[in-house]
Amino acid sequence: MAGQVFAYITHKEGKAEDTALELLKAAGRIDADAGATAIVTGSGADLEAVCNEMAVAYQEVWKFDSAALAYPNAEAIRKLLVNVLPGDAVVLIGHDTFGMDLGPGLSIKMDSVFIPDVVDFEGLESDALKVIRQEYSGQVSTHVDCDISTGAVINVRPGAFQSDETGSVGGQIIDKSAEVGDLTVGRRFLEVVEAEVGDVDITKEDVLVSIGRGIEDQDNIEIADELAEAMGAVVSCSRPIVDAKWLEKSRQVGTSGQTVKPKVYLALGISGSFQHMGGIKGNPFIVAVNKNPKAPILQVADVGVVEDLLDFVPVLTEKIQEG
After folding, report:
1. Per-residue pLDDT tens for 5-23?
2. Where in the chain do CATH 3.40.50.620 domains reside?
């Protein structure tokens, strides 16, 4: 059977990221009875706040308080986790920019299997964990059997598991700061450089009309602008639009762009790669318009429309204006 399951919790300004509860849901798919232990690293009052927040959902929370952990340095955290985790531990980490930095090296140091970008689990039989990943930008699902007898580091795709924010388990917070040890590493934190805000701040908008490759031409952005105006929304985009220099970087949604938490997200001609979806937090109502019926975003959308956006959006705009 699998070793103890741990979830590494990322947080900012005293608040856990949305992936924190998603990892708990993922742990339940591995072993419904075992649950998971949350690992929270940091320093001071922010760390304390996150630990208290996680104790509402997790039965057990391991707290590591150190000035060396005040900023999430993957090199230092790898060194810490190798020292404190059991050899057969199963470690769940979000498959975001930080998780992709932390996970592979951690698996090497733990001499355990590494499984990136997991979207679901099919169960555990003895030491064989059955996982589901996606290939070719989500066009194909792969089912993989992994031997986790010597532990595993698993990067879980953000948003793949619906978090459950109900209930309170009153978990125990265990202060393991005394076990931190020497965290001297080659990499060191210098400063935080805030992303450029630009003419609008899409991170604060409740409704976003987001465009991708399917818009086809810069001149066609006008139809998205008209729809956004009719909806009282703001236009955002995926990375290809920024790469083409059709919109500024401040409007890009994704792991290499902005993180947004709208109430409604209208995705026009966006395939739905994990890099893009990783920038969408919370539980927005997602409407996707894409002429490719196999586009990954249609699998997560609340409403999916298989249609050419250039034909569909003007009609939608007209109907909204009539209303």
Report:
1. 999 999 999 999 989 999 9
2. 5-179
Render pLDDT for 96-135 as a digit per residue (tens, 0 to 9). 889 999 999 999 999 999 999 898 999 888 889 999 998 7
CB 316 within 8 A of CB 305: no
Cα of 12 vs its chain's centroid, Å: 14
Query: pTM of the predicted model, to two decimals?
Result: 0.81
Residues 170-185 pLDDT 10s: 889 999 999 999 999 9
Chain centroid to CA 260: 12
Q: Which residues of the chain have pLDDT under 70?
A: 1-2, 137-138, 165-167, 195-198
Burial 223-244 (b: 16+ CB within 10 A, else e): bbebbbebbebbbbbbbbbbee
CB-facing half-sphere around the CA of 9: CA atoms within 13 A: 34
Q: Specify the CATH number of the domain 202-322.
A: 3.40.50.1220
Q: Report the C-alpha dihedral over residues 94, 96, 102, 106, rounded to 10 degrees.
A: 50
Q: Count the neighbouring beta carbons within 10 Å of the beta carbon of residue 88.
A: 17
Task: For residues 131 and 154, give the distance between their C-alpha atoms in angstroms, rounded to a whole number.
Answer: 10
Contact 119, 161 (CB under 8 A): no
Q: What letter does residue 69 receive in the DSSP assignment?
A: G
